[in-house]
Amino acid sequence: MQENWINTRVMECCAVDGERYTVIEQGGGTQPRYVLGNGRELARNGDGSFTVPGTEAVLWITAP
């Protein structure tokens, strides 16, 4: 696991219930990773949305 990630993009996202989240794309490794503002990793879905692992929460990008 990489220790030093570089923030490459910040995206504003919204959950189905309307709650807003900040998602950060981080690079520096072989593939980018996506984390919430608190550092919790996210899974990127094929449709461009994100899922919070261990939950059913789906986040949609509202501002790239």
Strand order of the largest sheet: 1-2-3-4-5-6
Broad shape: globular
* Beta strand count: 6
Strand content: over 45%
Supply Rg: 11 Å
Classify the helix fraction into a percent range.
under 10%
Largest sheet: 6 strands, antiparallel, barrel
**Termini separation:** 26 Å
User: Helix/strand-derived class?
Assistant: mainly beta
Indicate the low-confidence ranges by residue numbers.
Answer: none
- The mean pLDDT is 91
Which H/E pattern describes the elements? EEEEEE
Oligomer: single chain
Q: How many helices?
A: 0
Task: Explain what this protein looks like in three dimensions.
This protein is mostly beta strands. Helices cover 0% and strands 53% of the residues. A 6-stranded antiparallel β-barrel has the order 1-2-3-4-5-6. The protein is globular. It starts with 5 loop residues before the first strand and ends with a strand. The model has no long low-confidence stretch (mean pLDDT 91).
How would you summarize the topology of this molecule?
Blueprint: E1 6-15, E2 20-27, E3 33-36, E4 41-44, E5 50-51, E6 58-63
Antiparallel strand pairs: 1-2, 1-6, 2-3, 3-4, 4-5, 5-6
